[in-house]
Each structure stands twice: as structure tokens, then as C-alpha cells.
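Notebook, bench 3.
Goal today: get a predicted structure for ErfK/YbiS/YcfS/YnhG from Mobiluncus mulieris ATCC 35239 so we can plan the truncation constructs. The sequence was checked against the plasmid map this morning, with no discrepancies at the termini. Length recorded as 328 residues. Pasting the sequence as submitted so the record is complete.
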Amino acid sequence: MWVLAMIVAIVIVASWQVFRYNQQQSDAIKRATAAASQEITSRQVVVTLAGVSGNTGNTGSVSAKPAKASPQKTQPSEIRATPAQLRSWVRFQPDRSQKGKVRTKVQFQPEKVAAWMTQAAAQLKRAPEKGSRQVDATGHLVRLLKDPVSGVKIKNLAKSTSQLMKSLQDGKREVKIELRTESAPGGFDDTVVPTPPLAYQAQPTQVWVDVNLSNHTTAVYRGNQPVYGPIPMVNGHPQAPTRQGVFQVYAKVDHQIMRGIGWNGPYEEAAPWIAYFSGDYALHGAPWRHTFVWEPEKGSHGCINMAVADAKQVFDLVSIGTVVVVHQ
């Protein structure tokens, strides 16, 4: 009996030792996994956009080319991986390759990383939005109603995903991935309307400027043929209306600080490519404006505000004495 009892005791002790060893190994694996998890979740992974370009179009073409795009809508400028997301990318496996030591092998799962990158890119990209305008049968602008908004396309998602995966595997604690982009033009929905009648009967070779206060456009003509435009512009606020009539350019200034007391108080703006046609009334560039869609409450102090590129073209085409016709 005592032999049997001894065998039972040995088995019990051995079983306890095996249990204790396994428990120690399990605890060691848990500690190693917790430490590895903490290290992973403390990393910083940021995805940003590089080189987003707006759809500025060409406001000054004789044909109705895209007008200057509206300011871009608010979009996230970057996406950061949360600790929970970082943890979800990883598979932990016990590593007993070194005798007497228990470690945790970290394996990043490519499909999880790729899925997160795809989701981040989807949040950063932007679909284009069409603008709206009226054009005549020849394609010339009659009136700009709404600016287009450029979209953003992601160009290098697969390459960037591989870059992120490599950085993670290399153990980098701070990873910044820049997604290269390209602009996706918004374009226009056009409505064809009759061509507005000319407000001035010029000689066939005479250069003159048409300022249409009803359609909020400016155009340079030679005789009855458009040379530049029509282009969108912003004229005077209802409390500071642009003077109407037939005038002549009497002064041209490359650049000037315009100061005064306007309908909304004192103002001071640096304006380029100025062509004065009546007192303080002038055609000039307005770099402070992001849109030239007419909104009465955002009218000028009386001058004709144009995009800078358009103002330069008009400035170069007119001379002292050029007729300027301002009309409804």
C-alpha cells in the first residue's frame, strides 16, 4: 500500500509542478503580450494629404471656361489611428525560441492595415461638385450662378499602404504617411439662354469694355466680337451702386492701396491692374475675393472686382481713352 501511496504522491507533485509551470508560462505570455500591446498602442500613425490643388479654372476665356472655384469645403486634414485600431492590426503569438525566456511575437496583419488605409483615404478624398451657369448658344458665359468645387483623388494608396506596413514592421514609433493627390475638376451644369444684346454700337475695329450689371459680367470687345470674356465680376453693393453710363479709361495703375469709407465702414485693400473710368470707379483685380458669384450683401464699394488673372488681361487690352459701357 505504501508503494501505491508513494506513486500517487509523486503523480500529484508532478502534476502540481506541471500545472505551476504552465501557469507561470501563461502568466509570462500574458505579461509579454500586455507589454507588446502597450508598445503597439503607444505608436503614432498619421495619414495626411500632400499637394491638394484647387480647380481655379480660367475665368477669362472667351468661351465659358470654369470660373474660379469656391473655397474648399471643410475636410479632415489628417487621420490618426486610434489605440484600438492599432491593436486590431496585430496578432500576438508566443515566442519560445530562446530557452528560459517567453516573448510575444508581433505580427501585423496586412489585410487589417490595408482596410484601415482604405477607410482613411475615403475620409480624406472629396467628390467634386458641379457649378452652375448660363451660357449662350456659342458657349460664351452669360451669368455665373454657382462655383464648382474641386474634388480630391488619391493617387498612391497601394504604395502608401506598403510604406505603412514596412514602417510598422520596422518598429517605428511615429509614422507619417502622405497620400499624393490630384484635383478632380467639378465642371458645370450649363443652361443655354439667349445672347444678351450689345449695349454699345462700336466701329468694327474699336476696342471697348462691356460691364453688364444685370448678369454681373465684364467683357472686352473689338467691334461686336468678344476679345476677352465675358467673365464673372462683382459690382457695387446696393448701398454703393456702380455708376452707369458710357465712360472712357482715363488712368491705368499697376498696383494701388485703395482706402476709403464705404457702405460697411472704412476699408483698405491692395488692388492690382486698375483701370479708372469715372472718378474713383475702376476695373481692377480683387485678390481678397474667393468667388465672383453675385451676392448683393457682398458687393463692392462701387468698383468692378475681377479675378486677378482676368484683371491683368483686361488691363493689357485697354488703353487711355478706351470706352467703358456700364449698364443693366
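The radius of gyration is 35 Å. Helices lie at 2-41, 83-88, 110-124, 157-169, 308-317.
Flagging this for group meeting.
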